[in-house]
Amino acid sequence: MVLSREQIESVLAVMDGVTDEGLRSGKEVDVYDATEEDEYKVIIKRFNDNTKYVFGKGWSTMKYSLDLEEGQELKLYWHRGYKRFIVLNFQYTLLMI
Q: Which residues are 85's β-sheet partners?
């Protein structure tokens, strides 16, 4: 999965322990799905040309667990306090009272 360069770099700037060298080999991050209460460990990696970032190892497990299909958008939020991504791909339910 290719990640938005501008968005991921803004998150990487506030993460602990992020280095250029570490991004080339990969940085493990936690991703939490609050809807299903599942947590995934995924590697963020930067390609050698420095123009794009991807989710690597761990992505396949997460993708299948979240039932994502090619072309579908994954919405994530970086929680600075918990130091993990939160999955925001859920449907809102309107409650009528």
A: 31, 78
Residues 50, 55, 12, CA angle at the centre, nearest 5°? 60
Max Cα distance, the chain (Å): 55
pLDDT digits (tens, 9 = 90+) for 48-82: 677 789 999 999 999 999 888 888 888 899 999 99
CB 89 within 8 A of CB 77: no
Q: Domain spans of the chain?
A: 2-87
Give the DSSP letter of residue 39.
E
Residue among 18, 14, 26, 1 at smallest CA distance from 77:
14
Say if residue 55 is exposed, middle or buried (CB neighbours under 10 Å; 0-12, 13-18, 19+).
Answer: buried
Predicted structure pTM score: 0.83
CATH code that applies to domain 2-87: 2.40.330
User: Measured in Å, how far apart are the chain's first and last C-alpha atoms?
Assistant: 41
